[in-house]
Amino acid sequence: MEDSVESKWTLKSDAKSEPFLYCCSACDCSEEPFHGKVFRNRTKARSMSMPSAPSSAKFRRTQSLHGPSPVTTFGPKACMLKNPKAVMHIQDPASQRLTWNKPPKSVLIIKKIRDTSLLQPFKELCIFLTQQKNMIVYVERKVIEDPAIANESFVSIKKNICTFREDYDDISNCVDFIICLGGDGTLLYASSLFQESVPPVMAFHLGSLGFLTPFNFDTFQSQVTQVIEGNAAIILRSRLEVKVVKEYRENGSVEEMSLVTNGNKTMQYQVLNEVVVDRGPSSYLSNVDLFLDGHLITTVQGDGVIVSTPTGSTAYAVAAGATMIHPNVPAIMITPICPHSLSFRPIVVPAGVELKIMLSRDARNTAWVSLDGRKRQEIAYGDSITITTSCFPVPSICFRDPVNDWFESLAQCLHWNVRKKQSHLSSEEEEF
């Protein structure tokens, strides 16, 4: 690392042959890292009005999946245990392990809304965390206000739960780790709640598709206990930092999370799966220019273009004909959607490059952009979309390790598609 780069991190070690550990300036380095041995009594404020610490540090863009140099943190307390035997800075994916600077005391539960099949698992998890593990549980307010959950059986649980509202309350400094109950969409939603450092995410497969959710709920108590004790492998899923710049228009509405500079409005997002630019409701083909580090690469003429992370390569991108990339590969994938030209096929570029998408001069209509299927908005002439690798990955907790989990998820999705096709064919035969 260059000496000119300022860093607020310190390297912590001792004379014994213990693994090295990076600690941030927010940690109390007088305490030894927590490995499930001792719990210290401490209190934590439940108030949602706690102001978040200002982010004054400006991190340079990096091509590593490990975030800001030398290493990033995941929420207030979690970081990755450094492997002293690793060659260079990037570790073997199978050796990436979770550790805690201090024992975790708060957890955020993300539950799929209006799904009655999740009521019992949600109740069991809340009772286990609050009563047996003595943890502070955060849940989104609309989950507690769900009519299916507002009955007498949840009265004793609701009084021990802290609630928050999306886009209103900042919980980035309140949550030590996250538990998702549902399908892959719950992990995407959890990612959208944290626009900077993301706490470790433990995802249980209780939805329709479980590519990103490796845990089964049958043995949740032992699995959650292992995570609390810091005994788990993690995979760092890179995100995309997306800036949507719109020219000032007199009739334009000012949206939230926007900054007005030089008359233009800039909105910034963190995206885990993909950025999709398409033609929207227009019957004309979309026509957008694609720039790579300031150089015009091609003009995409077709239904649109997908810019995805390796995690998102198994989502919309693979349906559009792209290949699948392991999440530990530092890359960005660019995939055209039904291209009119035969010369443009899916390409993979290094993580850290800067992509820019604008409407072409020959475009006959505007375009639309969506980010992880949300925040859909129109892109007109003069607007631009800038995409690069984010410094804040999503640390996803593994069931076994990053390699085995990924290949097992591929096999599960293949079997799921085969079963779905067989059930569809059998239903057609019955109708016939």
Automatic annotation (TrEMBL):
Question: Which is a GO BP term held by this UniProt record?
Answer: NADP+ biosynthetic process
| Listed Pfam families | NAD_kinase, NAD_kinase_C
Q: Which InterPro entries match?
A: ATP-NAD_kinase_N, ATP-NAD_kinase_PpnK-typ_C, NAD/diacylglycerol_kinase_sf, NADK
Could you tell me which residues belong to the region Disordered? 43-65
Iron-sulfur listed as a keyword: no
Q: Name one GO molecular function term.
A: NAD+ kinase activity
Which family, according to UniProt? Belongs to the NAD kinase family.
Under what name is this protein listed? Answer: NAD(+) kinase
